[in-house]
Amino acid sequence: MKKVTIYALSTCLWCRKTKKFFEDKNVPFEAVDYDKQDEKRQAEMKKEMKEAGCSASFPFVRIGGSCVQGYDPDEFEKLLGGK
User: Fold this and answer.
1) Quick one: which of 16, 19, 44, 79 is 20 to 30 A from 35 by CA?
2) Before 28, cis peptide (omega within 30)?
3) What residues does each domain of the chain span?
4) d(CA 36, CA 51)
5) pTM of the model
6) Where are the beta strands (DSSP E) in the chain?
């Protein structure tokens, strides 16, 4: 199974929906709340997001080597090998 990482904001509705999507599908994931990290870790996260070809907006979801910006269940399914 592809590794799934979610960068989120703790107060973001779409971030919570994204986490719930993966929970409901029983897909293991690592979630990191950007706003709960120190400045150094936030800078690292922003750099990783930009290097992946995404802007620094949330949720940021990495599935394998691909990234998805925002809540996009169809794209999540496609990258997981479903659709």
Assistant:
1) 79
2) no
3) 4-80
4) 22
5) 0.90
6) 4-8, 30-33, 60-63, 66-69
Amino acid letter, 83: K
Mean pLDDT of the chain: 93
| pLDDT above 70 as % of the chain | 98
Round to whole Å and give the CA distance between 26 and 62.
16
Fold of 4-80: Glutaredoxin (3.40.30)
Burial category of 1 from C-beta neighbours within 10 Å (exposed 0-12, middle 13-18, buried 19 and up): exposed
From the CB of residue 64, how many other CB atoms can be counted at a distance below 10 Å? 12
Calpha distance 22→77 (Å, rounded): 10
**Greater model confidence, 65 or 61:** 61
